[in-house]
Amino acid sequence: MNLTDYVRKVSREDFGKEFRHEAYWNRRLKTTGGRFFPKDGHLDFNPRYYEADQDLFRKIVRHELCHYHLYFEKKGYRHKDRDFKELLQAVDGVRYAPPLALPDAISYLYRCQQCGQVYPRKRRVNTAKYRCGRCRGLLTLVDERNQSLG
To answer: Lower CB count within 10 Å: N or C terminus of the chain?
Structure first.
């Protein structure tokens, strides 16, 4: 899918206005659905929202287009401004993107051989170099996974 063409289509259909800049995917966005850059007018979008729910993604596009169109009309384009709130409600955009279920960061589980102390870690630990902080016992890799301890 060409993102810029999609944003132009949403802008024409939902706002009756043209989007004249570029839209880009940005995988580095973690907690937000999109961003508007007033300096050059481009938009960034989180592709994880598109992959998760396309209806929600369209509402996120509307949200960013509210910032975009209000900025170039020299009206209040920030979240706290009345113009922004009214336009967002009129086009049925989302105020805030709901949090995505991100993969859990804990990938390695180590256990002390002597006292049984458990050490969940994001990165590998050199067991020849590091020991248990409680009793100085040897550590062993118990589980290598992509889920949390639960």
So the answer is: C
